[in-house]
Amino acid sequence: MPLFGVLVVVRGHDADWDFRNYHWYDAYAWLTGRRGFDLAVAHHATYYNPLADVPVYLAAQVMPAWLVGFLVGCVHGLNLLVLYRLAHHALDARANTRSEWLALAIAVAGTTGGMFLILVGNASNDLTVSILILLALLAIVRDEAAETTRRDLPRFVLAGLAVGSAIGLKLTMAPFAFGIATGAFAMRAPLRNRLQRVACIGAGGVIGALAFGGAWAFALWRETGNPFFPYFNDVIGSPLVLAASYRDERFLPHGIVEYLFYPFVFSAHGLRVNDNLFRDVKIALAYVLVPLAIAWAVARRPRGVRVLTPAMQLLFTFAIVSYLVWMNIFGVYRYIVTLEILAPLLIALALTCAIADDVARLRALAILWVVAVIGTGWPSVAAVDGHWRGRYVDVTHPLIADPSHTLVVVAGLEPMGYIVPSFPPEIPFLRIDGWLDSPQSHSAFGDRMRARIDAHAGPIFGVFSEHERERALAAFAADGLVLAANECDTITSNVGEPLQWCELERKSDGH
């Protein structure tokens, strides 16, 4: 675990697009009660559950930046520990020293993948919620009895609680709920016991989701009419924004060929499933080897002999169903980084079915590990966005003469939420133009912002990126604002590009 922390410190401050857009801002806004005071500052992400971002934000207020990064890396390193325990039980390594070392090797392989190492220390929280998913699997894998008794059922409740908590913190973990429920159902047992397992997982899942996401969903529903605002608004129908799903569908597969061979597509071209370049081949290897090994073992088994252990039934089914749901809903690779983590274990279990000789099986795994190492995008892993000098987020802005009567309007697509916590808290920020809303949308949400602008009697300033100047000026003009005669100032920081800070005035008949 400390090695992952050291990796983060050596590599540098990760200040990617999402961090600058909402991870820093959302935690601040939640802690200071700015929801409704600011509007759409971080586009759609303004309305994401901020709970997972709060610990980092609070730690950064009292700790040096490098120490915060180190601790985040250590937390992400917990994935290795949980994966080791999961592999230990799945391989039944309690009485086999060789399997004990194999479990450790699998844990190392699973946590040194192309996406995993990119996300270590990253604010996305994908490697935080993945710990909960792995813990859910561990809770069930430890129970390998053919039948479930009442005494065993609490483990399935615990598994559901872990998955539900992950979903409450980050809704993109939803595919794993389907995966773990069907995986538990696939484990050998009488039908009644299987249904009891699924019911226990469901009960725990509801409790976990409500505990970590229920209050936030209720607040969104009360304020917007949509507990997932703005997503699925074509179904739920908040009157504030358009009747659209607002989902990013860029990364979904196109056509039957991509559906069938998508792991090979994104292993060769990482940008098909991610905004930034990456490469990892382990999911593609598992996609081929697991079904082939199972088919080979089933074809050669003696009559009446069971090929799959309960752990295999759970993990294989979990991986297949989670992948299929993810492929049809999201297509964003980092949302299934848990499958990248699990891939070496899935491959090892599959080869256990197909290769009886221990030495031959270890040789095959060693060869596959070499292939996986060669197929990892190491240059992408080494990329960073920032440094550790100064505060975790250090923003310098122009002097503001009258903060309590100042309004700021933001325009353009660039991430700017990170600057807000550094400004006087009396100043509201409205993003009048962006992914969520723009003057062209003619939505009730935009009308709400225009009403705020019209009613404001004090100074108004605009913030935008220089390369989006034309777009920003058009957005300001659509809301009755133009640049004042004064020259624009600049907002600078240690995590993002300089931003323009311009005084605005209302359009007159002469403009």
Description:
- The chain is mainly α and 511 residues long.
- Helix content is 55%, strand content 6%.
- It contains 19 helices and seven strands.
- It has helices at 2-11, 17-32, 54-62, 65-90, 97-110, 114-119, 126-141, 153-169, 174-186, 191-224, 233-236, 255-268, 282-300, 310-329, 337-354, 358-374, 378-381, 444-455, 469-478; strands at 395-396, 407-410, 429-431, 460-464, 481-483, 489-493, 499-506.
- Strands 1, 2, 3, 4, 5, 6 and 7 form a seven-stranded mixed sheet that branches.
- A hairpin with a 5-residue loop joins strand 6 and strand 7.
Percentage of residues in helical conformation? 40-55%
Report on the biggest sheet: 7 strands, mixed
Number of separate domains: 2
Portion of residues in beta strands equals 5-15%
Uncertain regions spanning at least 5 consecutive residues: none
Decide which structural class fits the backbone.
mainly alpha
- Outline: elongated
Q: Report, as a whole number of angstroms, the end-to-end distance.
A: 61 Å
Strands, count: 7
Mean pLDDT, all residues: 91
Can you write the helix and strand succession as a string? HHHHHHHHHHHHHHHHHEEEHEHEEE
DSSP helical segment count: 19
Radius of gyration (Å): 25 Å
Précis, in short:
With 511 residues, the protein is mainly alpha-helical. It has 19 helices and seven strands. Strands 1, 2, 3, 4, 5, 6 and 7 form a seven-stranded mixed beta sheet that branches.
Q: SSE layout and pairings?
A:
Layout lengths: L1 H10 L5 H16 L21 H9 L2 H26 L6 H14 L3 H6 L6 H16 L11 H17 L4 H13 L4 H34 L8 H4 L18 H14 L13 H19 L9 H20 L7 H18 L3 H17 L3 H4 L13 E2 L10 E4 L18 E3 L12 H12 L4 E5 L4 H10 L2 E3 L5 E5 L5 E8 L5
Parallel strand pairs: 2-3, 2-4
Antiparallel strand pairs: 1-6, 4-7, 5-7, 6-7
Helix pairs in contact: 1-4, 4-5, 4-7, 4-15, 5-15, 7-8, 8-9, 8-10, 9-10, 9-14, 13-15, 14-15, 15-16
